[in-house]
Amino acid sequence: MRIGISAAGKDLDALLDPRFGRCPYFLIVDTETKEFEAVDNPGSTAGGGAGIKAAQAFLRLEAKELVTGQAGPNAFEVLVEGGVKIYQAPQLKISEVIELYKNGDLKETTPAGRGRGAR
């Protein structure tokens, strides 16, 4: 399974960046082989609309699951409409986050202030 993780660095020893829209990188990881690719997040340097820019860039990477700390409501909406499931994880090493994901220890998240299924 290919998943995306908001990352503070470019490798599996980097920490998960809790800020989806402003994280410097997305790590696209094959959870079985642990092969990965680091991709610059264009939202990290945006003056405004960082979450939407990040979400649009993430959709182009064709990963259908994202692990992050938090995605703002605008980014969340773009991602969900694009068919992405979003999981929340603590700020740990990416390698540890992958293990939590593989073990089913991460919860799918909903946007702040909304109940599951609300629009």
Explain this structure to me?
The protein has 119 residues and is α/β, with parallel strands linked by helices. It has one domain (2-108): Nucleotidyltransferase, domain 5, CATH 3.30.420.130. The protein contains three helices and six strands; from the N terminus they run βββαβαβαβ. Strands 3-2-1-4-5-6 form a six-stranded mixed sheet, sandwiched between helices. Helix 1 (50-60) runs parallel beside helix 2. The longest helix is centred in the middle third of the chain and has 11 residues, at 50-60. The N and C termini lie far apart (28 Å). Mean pLDDT is 91; it is low at 113-119.
Low-confidence stretches: 113-119
Order of helices and strands: EEEHEHEHE
- What is the gyration radius calculated from CA atoms? 13 Å
Number of helices: 3
CATH fold field value? Nucleotidyltransferase, domain 5
Looking at CATH, the homologous superfamily is Dinitrogenase iron-molybdenum cofactor biosynthesis domain
- Overall, the morphology is globular
Query: N-to-C terminal Cα separation, in Å?
Result: 28 Å
Total discrete domains = 1
- What is the overall pLDDT average? 91
The CATH class turns out to be: Alpha Beta
Main sheet, how many strands, which sense, barrel?
A: 6 strands, mixed
Named at the architecture level, the CATH assignment is: 2-Layer Sandwich
Query: What is the tally of beta strands?
Result: 6
Q: What percent of residues are in strands?
A: 15-25%
Helix-and-strand structural type: alpha/beta
